[in-house]
Design brief:
The complex is a heterodimer of chains A (about 90) and B (about 550).
Chain A: H1 11-37, H2 46-53, H3 55-65, H4 72-91
Helix pairs in contact in A: 1-2, 1-3, 1-4
Chain B: H1 3-34, H2 37-44, H3 59-69, E1 77-80, E2 91-94, E3 108-113, E4 119-123, H4 129-138, H5 146-171, H6 175-179, H7 188-202, H8 204-231, H9 257-267, E5 272-278, E6 288-293, E7 305-309, E8 316-318, H10 328-341, H11 346-375, H12 392-417, H13 422-425, H14 429-480, H15 493-519
Antiparallel strand pairs in B: 1-2, 1-5, 2-3, 3-4, 5-6, 6-7, 7-8
Helix pairs in contact in B: 1-4, 1-5, 1-11, 1-12, 2-4, 5-8, 7-11, 8-10, 11-12, 12-14, 14-15
The chains are: A mainly alpha (about 90), B alpha+beta (about 550).
Chain lengths: ~90, ~550
């Protein structure tokens, strides 16, 4: 069997997953930090601002890393799964 | 690292870079200039009619007279400690403008008492050209409505962030070997690549900061909205904290501005107050705040930080944005702004950011050149006699790169130079500054396409040198011709010095480029075919013979 080799040919599927699901995941991770790390935040408090700022580095990391999924389908599946996990944790 | 991953990220780097590069060039070039927005605005603004600043001790009298005559000032006013082109008088207040958008700069009235107790009140004549440069910076050169320009800027910033990460990944395997290598040799692409890598690696922290903060500057409203709609609800609902009810006992007399300044000096000797704002009807926050800066700490905005004082005692009551007095959390958030604005460390950091900004512009310019060099068709032995017909993408991107970057430089220069001419000629100065910028910008791009990459670059470098030279020339004209323009004997002369140096550098680059196209190999982007029937006639001096 030929070993898997990465190409940039399916960039659009991966990048769109990275952008949409990455944005939602960054939001959820900020929310998880607020709830479980900071014990809740007051509107526009400094802690709230921090969870907002967090979106930028997380999104850039996810957008940069999403090309390492082997296919668009895998990108959507894994990032979708991570979102379900994070948002369920947040809704509990 | 696996070669296919490197290749993958090379593609990612190439395309994110090529899409965002030219817009980033404008953002960085204009951003470098905004580091000296205050001296630039001073240079560009006509002399204010106020004369000597009212002595601080007499400011209470000034306040009383203004409040009696100008109802608008009763809603809030400010007392200026350090005059600037923006606030040239001792007192100023904001004019109500119900039609203004959130991001429109507010309009001010200014008032000053002369030595013989005459009250002078006048609107602002501060030049809008520094605001134009700032807008070009914040909106990546697109003077579109804020709601349209900001998402574009944010998307460019995201692409830029991904371009930085992917660029580092591509460079990683050969980092040690390539980093200090600067191969001046026959291989020009190698030279450009070395230069690109050198700039990129050594200013990487600066660039990461710019990319990550710009994403937030563009999208903070949308993220807050999304958080409110999706995250902070149900179990995660916002917690409500009681507002600090430690309001001061409203008794006795308010302290005069001179006493406020003295009390602040006593408590925070290193804080340099610029202006104090009195607003008794403040919805949020204290009714008296002082804006100022402290170069020993990070300041939240380019002009510094802000401290809230008790108007009766002068005690510091609000330190959320006060440099050096913030909580750990607050200082952390402030550091994101500070690192973007370079608002720490005073003039040393200002200069460092100026050069880092210009270096950033050079990074994007060399990135585009690399794209072109990589894609250009190499000459085959069999067609040695003719020029190589380059791909369409190169024929478009080449002139576009030259036209956009030099057009931005020249457009800003001409628009700045016009500041000393426009007030005497036209009324709507801001509109004229924007039009002049775009006129030059578009003309440069058009000329680049007309003449092609190489000849266009030579012409436009010379034109940009001339455009930038206009700045000191206008100042010189103002010095020689009585009644025309103005000059100040303060730090704003820096503008003339820097512009002169810039003009000289552009002229030298023009000379080098002209020499290069005479020597360029036939398959180079910089090759100019000898006057062939198809090519337009070239100036004799540039022809190959």
């Amino acid at each position: 069997m030929k070993p898997f080799r990465y190409t940039s040919s399916d960039w659009f599927g991966k990048a769109s997953a990275g952008l949409l699901l990455g944005f939602l995941l960054s939001l959820a991770l900020g929310g998880l930090l607020a709830r479980y790390g900071l014990g809740g935040v007051a509107p526009f408090s400094i802690q709230h601002q921090l969870t907002m700022w967090l979106v930028s580095p997380l999104l850039v990391i996810i957008l940069s890393a999403c090309f390492l999924f082997r296919s668009s389908a895998q990108a959507w599946l894994w990032l979708g799964g991570a979102n379900v996990f994070a948002w369920v944790l947040l809704a509990l | 690292m696996r070669s296919d991953i490197i290749k993958l990220y090379k593609d990612v780097h190439t395309w994110t870079g090529i899409v965002s590069g030219l817009l980033l060039f404008i953002a960085f070039y204009a951003g470098a200039i905004t580091m000296f927005e205050a001296p630039l605005q001073r240079w560009a603004s006509p002399p204010a009619p106020f004369g000597e600043l009212t002595p601080l001790e007499d400011s209470q009298q000034l306040i009383d007279r203004v409040l009696a005559d100008y109802p608008d000032a009763r809603r809030g006013y400010q007392i200026v400690f350090q005059p600037s082109a923006q606030f040239p008088a001792r007192m100023s207040w904001q004019l109500p403008n119900p039609e203004a958008h959130d991001h429109d700069p507010p309009e001010f009235m200014h008032a000053n008492l002369t030595a013989d107790n005459k009250l002078i009140v006048a609107g602002s004549e501060a030049s809008p050209v520094s605001q134009l440069v700032d807008d070009l910076h914040r909106q990546v050169g697109l003077m579109l409505p804020h709601e349209i320009a900001m998402p574009i800027m944010g998307s460019v910033a995201l692409l830029y962030g991904v371009a930085l990460v992917s660029g580092v990944i591509v460079l990683l395997p050969t980092l040690v070997q390539d980093l200090f290598a600067f191969r001046l040799g026959k291989n020009l692409k190698r030279l450009w690549l070395d230069f690109h890598n050198l700039l990129g690696v050594f200013s990487l922290p600066f660039h990461l900061v710019m990319a990550l903060t710009s994403v937030i500057f563009a999208f903070h409203d949308q993220i807050y909205d999304a958080q409110e709609a999706l995250v902070y609800r149900g179990e995660n609902a916002f917690i409500q904290t009681a507002r600090d009810a430690s309001a001061s006992p409203a008794s006795g007399d308010k302290l005069s501005p001179a006493l406020i300044a003295a009390r602040l000096q006593e408590q925070q000797p290193e804080f340099e107050p610029h202006r104090m704002i009195v607003n008794d009807a403040a919805q949020r926050g204290p009714s008296l705040v002082v804006f100022g800066s402290n170069p020993r700490y990070g300041n939240r905005s380019p002009d510094g930080g802000v401290v809230g004082l008790d108007p009766y005692t002068g005690d510091i009551v609000a330190t959320d944005y006060m440099p050096g007095m913030q909580s750990g959390w607050g200082a952390t958030i402030t550091s994101f702004f500070t690192l973007h604005f370079g608002s720490y460390g005073g003039n040393t950091v200002r200069w460092a950011y100026f050069f880092l900004g210009l270096g950033g512009a050079a990074l994007f310019y060399t990135g585009n050149l690399l794209w072109l060099e990589t894609r250009r068709k190499k000459q085959k032995k069999s067609t040695a006699a003719q020029a190589v017909e380059q791909r369409r993408s190169a024929r478009i991107l080449g002139p576009l790169t030259v036209g956009v970057s030099l057009g931005c430089i020249a457009g800003i220069s001409v628009s700045i130079a016009a500041a000393k001419v426009l007030p005497a000629l036209v009324a709507d100065i801001g509109h004229w500054h924007t039009s002049i910028y775009y006129l030059v910008f578009v003309a440069f791009i058009g000329w680049a396409f007309l003449r092609g990459t190489a000849l266009g670059a030579v012409d436009l470098l010379r034109a940009a040198a001339l455009a930038t030279g206009l700045i000191p020339l206008i100042s010189l004209a103002a010095l020689l011709a009585p009644g025309f323009g103005w000059n100040y004997s303060d730090g704003s002369g820096l503008v003339d010095v820097v512009a002169s140096l810039g003009a000289i550098i552009l002229a030298l680059l023009g000379r080098r480029t002209a020499q290069r196209i005479r020597r360029a190999p036939h398959d180079s982007l910089w090759y100019i075919a000898p006057a062939a029937p198809l090519a337009p006639a070239e100036p004799g001096k540039l022809e190959r013979t």
